[in-house]
Amino acid sequence: MKYVIIGNGVAGIHAAEAIRQLDTEGSITMIGDEAHDPYCRPMISHVLDGSVTPDRLPIRDAGFYDELNITPVLGKRVTGIDVNNQTVFIQEKTGSSSMDTSHTLMGLICKLLSVLLGDDPGSETGPKDFRKVFPYDKLLIATGADPRPVKAEGLNLKNIFYMRTQEHVSQMLEVLPDAENALVLGGGLVGFKAAYGLLRRGLNVTMLIRSGYPLSMQVDETAGKIILDELLSHGLKVKTGTEVKVFEGTDRVKAAHLSDGTEVSCDMVVIGKGVLPALSFVPDKIQTDLGILVNPYMETSIPGIFAAGDVAESVDISRKTPWVNAIWPEAVNQGRAAGMNMAGRQVAYKGSLSRNVIRIFNLDVMTAGIVNPPDDPSYEILSSRNNRLDIYRKLVFREDKLVGYVMVNSVEQGGILTSLIQNEIPVRKDCQWSVVSSPLSVISGQLTN
Amino acid sequence: MKQVVVHPERCLGCMQCMIACATAHSQSKILFSATLEDPLPKPRVHLGAGLYAEGFPNRCRHCEPAPCMLACLPGAVFRDPERDTVLIDPDRCINCASCAMACPFGVIRYYQDHTAPPGKTVAVKCDNCLERQEQGLIPACAEVCKSGALTFEETSDAMKRKTDVVARSVSADISQTELSPGFALLNTIRKAQAGLSAGN
């Protein structure tokens, strides 16, 4: 059996491990864009804020590929899939001027490796082209996501960053010592974590957000305002409802002109407008929406081709509709499920659930599922706020089941709520209030903390 | 392998397990000096309360596969397969609370502990008292529990006992079998009280 995994992020890694557990014989090839040892992507924001050193990022050691007898092809992006002939290929012009040396070097290393290993199934089409073909029996697309680009003039200036990879953050760390004023585009998770990290590093940070408070996709207005107040009290400046038209500067970025006519001076910019599934190479035969649509066995519309992680779109447990939940724990679960199904053991994945936990300064926020339900009588909201203890709770029920929650502070036992949603456990009407308000209830945690 | 088995129907909610646990995880292992320690040792077993204020000794189940382990970002949560125990490496933990969001039982807490680097807040949970077990002692919570809500035994033995009770309960003499009559009475009173106060 020939397994090919596109992507060496956490979904790809867990899939490879699951395959190896069940199939010790088959060949596994992993093609990954990032040449680092497998690392923990969510932790790059901890590296930015200085609470974690970069050497803590790897989640598997350098011997990972050898130990599991995996052939790694790193530093390369797959450019296409031939569904009829069951092959994946990489084709690029390595001689073009847009390639930097590291790419060319990595190309050379890959070629050298494949010659040494004697397993070069592809062909070189010319001295300046890199073309490699990988046949597969089972294919996993776990390419993750790329930062959502912005439209503005002057994006080619130095010190304008995305925050998606370890590389992005190490570039940011290099310019930090000379930076004073930072501009962060976007109040979603990426923008928010970038803003927090830069505040912790002592910069003056201005954040541009669309709605009145950050994390509007993750939290409700009450929690959003609590988070905003916490950030403002630590010096964050916020501008709402405006975007950058032009970045100005000679070599490095110096200022940004906004659509409301104002100007913000900045010596570094972080673009954190969310991510988009990386599926530009995926042929039309594979059904896609925002992400690649998968069934409960993580299989795409083409048998034998699976998808997992940030690129995959599976049914959301709380929303009951296909949804891309680009979060780490779902990438782990989906990768494991995909790997087992690829290796022949049928394992149904129960669907994804959006969720996040964030600790900033003196604030802990945990949220999952639907937090801003539509105006529909089947939804019921229970909430309580205790200003003395600085605790806020909001539970969203659809009929007798919990479908979402927001917790501010004392979040230690939030996992119980996550589990109530994931397992779709009915909660009796007379018990619902005790879940949110009873001083003796497990959730309020007053007895146990 | 012997494990701590929880029998929630026998729990009185006396919280002695919490005190014993905190003491067992202190530096001095003596209650009185433990209260003077910095950082103050804390319990890793937690007394939850049911709807009618009945006690529930909430303790890590050492799941397999463990949701906290799969969710852990820095790979700090690991399993000791020989002793069937899920443990947290305080040096690797980054206090991100990803495990709190994943644990379906809500048994992980975050604080400074003497086993962690000084001044560092880390995730802490039940470690099956491995240190005590190495000295030939049984886990502190099970040792101190007076009502038999926490027992240290082969899980297969506990299963057998419960299966026997179920088997007896399908006989004609069902009314004669009561697993723990005193506790059933206590809980009935609690339910009645809760019902009365709800009526007001």
Report what the structure shows.
By secondary structure, chain A is of the alpha/beta class. Chain A has 3 domains: 211 residues, FAD/NAD(P)-binding domain (3-Layer(bba) Sandwich); 125 residues, FAD/NAD(P)-binding domain, CATH 3.50.50.60; 67 residues, no CATH class. Helix content of chain A is 24%, strand content 28%. Chain A contains 10 helices and 26 strands. A 5-stranded parallel beta sheet of chain A has the order 3-2-1-7-19. In chain A, strand 14 and strand 15 form a beta hairpin. In chain A, helix 1 runs parallel beside helix 8. The C terminus of chain A is likely disordered. The mean pLDDT of chain B is 89. Helix content of chain B is 34%, strand content 17%. The longest helix of chain B is centred in the last third of the chain and has 19 residues. In chain B, the strands form 4 sheets. Chain B has a two-stranded antiparallel ribbon. In chain B, strands 2-3 form a two-stranded antiparallel sheet. Chain B has a domain of 66 residues: Alpha-Beta Plaits. With 200 residues, chain B is of the alpha+beta class. In chain B, strand 2 and strand 3 form a beta hairpin. Chains A and B meet through helix 8, strand 22, strand 23 and helix 9 of A and strand 2, helix 3 and helix 4 of B.
Overall CATH architecture of the domain at 60-125 in chain B: 2-Layer Sandwich
Quaternary: heterodimer
CATH top level class name of the domain at 60-125 in chain B: Alpha Beta
Total DSSP helices of chain B: 8
Strand order of the largest sheet of chain A: 3-2-1-7-19
Structural class by secondary-structure content of chain B? alpha+beta
- Note the gap between the termini of chain A: 52 Å
Per CATH, the architecture of the largest domain in chain A is 3-Layer(bba) Sandwich
Shape of chain A: globular
CATH superfamily of the largest domain in chain A: FAD/NAD(P)-binding domain
Chains forming the largest contact: A-B, 38 and 31 residues
Tally of separate helices of chain A: 10
Number of strands of chain A: 26
- Give the mean pLDDT of chain B: 89
> What would the CATH topology of the domain at 60-125 in chain B be?
Alpha-Beta Plaits
Give the integer mean of the pLDDT values of chain A.
88
The order of strands across the largest sheet of chain B is 1-8
Characterize the main sheet of chain A: 5 strands, parallel
Low-confidence segments of chain A, given as residue ranges, are 96-103, 118-126, 437-449
- How big a fraction of the residues of chain A is strand? 25-35%
